[in-house]
Design a protein that fits this description.
This protein has a domain of 121 residues: Acid Proteases (Cathepsin D, subunit A, domain 1), CATH 2.40.70.10. It has two helices and twelve strands, in the order βββββββββββαβα. A hairpin with a 3-residue loop joins strand 5 and strand 6. 30% of the residues are buried.
Length: 173
């Protein structure tokens, strides 16, 4: 008999993790999609220590009409399949990293799908090239009905094998 998860009562990552109050349990890392900007898969770190979400972006260009254009590389170990996106600027914030470095960042509102649920997330754009994940999902997004189990990963499901291989720098197909 499979061991049941202590807070969700489920048997594993293939089983939907929802508590009795309707909150979805996610792990410390998950696969999400960003349908509004054309990113079908990106591996994220779920970060309860970060207020807002943060996305690895480059070639960030502020445009007239309070808009911003930027490029996203969804794969962690590859610069292939970069996507160009354009969004309204929601805000500008000074964000302090865990090392104490302060940086002014553009904030956009992105729709993402986490654990099968749509989430509206304030997301800062920054260069995360040297970080372990291309995106962090912060507390503001998690407040929309999520619990975090820091001992588990990919409770929302895994990307298909060929996508996971691509994320590690491999070829599709």
């Amino acid at each position: 008999m499979a061991d049941l998860h202590p807070t969700t009562g489920t048997a594993g990552a293939d089983t939907e993790s929802v508590d009795p109050l309707g909150a979805r349990t996610v792990g410390w890392r998950e696969w999400v999609s960003l349908p509004g900007i054309g990113v079908p898969w990106i591996k994220v770190k779920v970060d309860t220590g970060a207020r807002s979400s943060s996305l690895h972006a480059f070639d960030i260009e502020e445009l007239p009409g309070d808009r911003v254009r930027f490029r996203v590389q969804p794969w962690q170990d590859s610069d292939r399949d970069a996507v160009t996106a354009e969004c309204d600027v929601h805000d500008r914030r000074v964000v302090r990293s865990s090392s104490g470095h302060a940086e002014e960042r553009v904030v956009v509102l992105l729709d993402l799908v986490l654990g099968g649920r749509p989430v509206h997330a304030e997301t800062t754009l920054t260069n995360r090239d040297q970080m372990g994940f291309r995106m962090l999902v912060g507390r503001e997004a998690l407040r929309q009905g999520f619990l975090v189990d820091p001992a588990r990963s990919f409770l929302g499901g895994r990307a298909p094998r060929e996508i996971r291989r691509r994320n590690r720098g491999g070829e599709l197909g």
